[in-house]
Amino acid sequence: MNIVVCIKQVPDTTNVRINPETNTLMREGVASIINPFDAYALEEGVRLKEKHGGKVTVLSMGPPQVESALREAISLGVDEAVLLSDRAFAGADTLATAFTLAAGIRKLGGADVILMGRQAIDGDTGQVGPGVAENLGLPHVTDVRKIEGIDAEGTIVVERLMEEGYLRLKTKLPMVMTVVKEINEPRLPSLKGKLAAKKAAITVWTAKDLELDGVRIGLNGSPTQVMKIFTPPKPAGGKVIHGEPHHAVAQLLEELQKAGIPLGKAKAEARHG
Amino acid sequence: MAEPIQVILDKCTGCKLCVKVCMYDAVTVVEKKAIIDEKCTLCGACVTACKYDAIEIRKAVYRGQEVEAYAGICLYAEHRHGKLASVVPEIIGAARELKVAHDRPISAILLGDKVRHLADELIAYGVDEVWLEEHPGIGEFHEDVQASLVARILQDRKPEIFLGGGTIIGRSLLPRVAARILTGLTADCTELTIDGDSKLLQQTRPAFGGNIMATILCRHHRPQMATVRHKVMKEAEKVDGHAGKIVELSYPVPKPKIEVLEFVPEKTETVNLADADFIVSGGRGLKDPKNFALIEELAKAVGGAVGASRAAVDAGWIPYSHQVGQTGKTVNPTIYFACGISGAIQHLAGMKGSDIIVAINSDASAPIFSVAHFGIVGNLFEVIPEIVKQLKG
Questions:
Q1: pLDDT tens per residue across span B59-74
Q2: Do the chains contact at B264 and A232, CB–CB below 8 Å?
Q3: Under 8 Å between Cβ of A245 and B383
């Protein structure tokens, strides 16, 4: 089985702090990491290989420093790594990114399963997975929480998380899926994996290698453009109530009522009255 | 290729504002001039941060389509189990505000089997024209089939704006449509306005876990597409006697590549998180999985849903489907009760948009209190039963 996992290197937003005086982001000390959702995709890719045999290739688009994320992926059990890196790719929105990744997958000779996280934690869009699928003409399933099984004919059954439950879906490989955290618990790198990561040769492909039209990639191939970036207004300081529970709760409910939100009995009256 | 991002040296004062805002560590200041290196992703943060207009991103303009040929606002009428998705009246609400300010008709794409009653409902909400295709082959939702139909309808009918829900379905379908018709799509918008001069749709959305907001434009491609975050826009109210038109379509329906075997609803006594007006969430402070009963009790008392922090989910106290936060669900209820949740930034990313946040925590210095509108410093094992008691009383 040929498995391709697409990953993105992102700033570790969980460690971002806001400067309380200027209300701006403080980037200092924020490390670059593999997008956490993609870590589940990597793990699932390696598990598929362990079960069905074959090869896992990790693919990313980004500047040269993404190499460190690809080496980390190798330490987690991935066989090969390819980086799509070219200044002409910079500034890509999700449309141009999906187009470029799809071109990379084509040059790899396609894949049976293409995996990625449900969204990246910097952009939070979740648009690249379906976009890659459309570019390759493959079916896709987002928010997969479990792969139930793949049979010898390449029929795959997955569980896809919905707002109010989950769907069991069946399709034929090849396909694209994005995964949620529930799907597995990623392993830690093994010693052997760490050694492999050190030695691995990372393939780098440029726009020329992929024979891509400049109109479709990077900033020029991106219909969307950021007009402005701002920090959301600082939340106004709230009201903190101390004291023993009976009085504290009475005060809270009074405040909520004042704020125009009837709860409990008052709400029931508003509904039925 | 010319480097698209340029520092205009005459204007740069070396103030380092750009260095501070860059999330990718791509700007350094050498001899009082900013230098942008290859780590730059052209995200534009430095361009908007610079007070001296000293950084420019130049983009070559390739005309996507004849933008003048496109007119009106169209929305995707998502539905499940014979009902419109609750995000749909919210999208119509947003569309109607744009219509009032800029006089644009509102249309809706409605695809399904035996869904005509939903067309009438859309019109009652203020939709002017429903583009309806009814076919037994689209009784179930399939991304590939719907994407091909929606793409053809958009190409033939040419709305200048196309909106969908920031739901699981909307965020799976619209990217596929955008990739097919080659236009821009902005995910999970929390504000939509039309610029007075350019008449472009200004699409504002949170990024970096809600730590920054970005306003996005799609200048040269149509339609301008966006998904809209659930429970942010104000729901449209029904308009008595609104006259709308149903246009019946009969595009060929392709065969789906994915088969739906079954839908398994979540077993819960409370409502689902995405739709809930009230959410009661529990975290590490509950100390023990059985204490989630307390959270459920309060959720029932307020008629809300049960949420959880990552810590509680990772500890195995409650299923992942309840997780609120960056790696879980994003919620925007009327009231969010955070009980025994310290307020890690990744949790805040998922619930900061709530109208009112109530925090209950024994640690007065917990970060949750910095975003809470109301907080009770106290023992949640005493406070929660007291709330339930007073609500019932």
A1: 776 655 688 899 999 9
A2: no
A3: yes
In tens, the pLDDT along B245-259 reads 999 999 999 999 999
Domain at B67-248: CATH code: 3.40.50.620
Domain count of chain A?
A: 2
Interchain proximity A229–B214, CB inside 8 Å: yes
Of B203, B194, B135, the C-alpha closest to B174 is B203
CATH of the domain at A33: 3.40.50.620
pLDDT in tens, A230-270: 887 766 668 899 989 999 999 999 988 888 887 765 454 44
Give CATH 3.30.70.20 domain extents, chain B.
5-57
The structure tokens 């806001």 sit at A18
Looking at domain B273-392, its CATH architecture is: 3-Layer(aba) Sandwich (3.40)
| Amino acid of residue B376 | I
Nearest residue of chain B to residue A32 (CA atoms): B24
d(CA B253, CA A129): 24
CB contact under 8 A, A252 and B376: yes
- The CA-atom distances, in angstroms, between B355 and each of B96, B161, B203 are 22, 28, 21
Q: Judged by CB atoms within 8 Å, which residues 100-139 of B form the interface with A? A: none
pLDDT score, position A271: 45
CB-CB contact of B2 with B11 (8 Å): no
Q: Could you give the dihedral angle defined by the CA atoms of residues B338, B339, B340 and B342, in that order, rounded to the nearest 10 degrees?
A: 10
Task: Supply the Cα-derived Rg of chain B in whole angstroms.
Answer: 24
Give just the sign of the alpha carbon dihedral B207, B213, B219, B225. Answer: positive
Please tell me the distance in Å from B383's CA to the nearest CA on chain A.
5
Q: Three-class SS of residue B393?
A: coil
Contact B226, B185 (CB under 8 A): yes
Show contacts of B146-151: CB within 8 Å, 24+ apart. Answer: B146/B111, B146/B173, B147/A134, B147/B173, B147/B176, B147/B177, B147/B180, B148/B180, B148/B254, B149/B111, B149/B251, B149/B253, B150/B76, B150/B109, B150/B111, B150/B177, B151/B177, B151/B180, B151/B181
* ipTM of predicted assembly, 2 dp: 0.91
Q: How many residues does chain B have?
A: 393
Q: Which two tokens stand for residue B163?
A: 């909106």
Question: Does the CA dihedral A20-A23-A29-A30 come out positive or negative?
Answer: positive
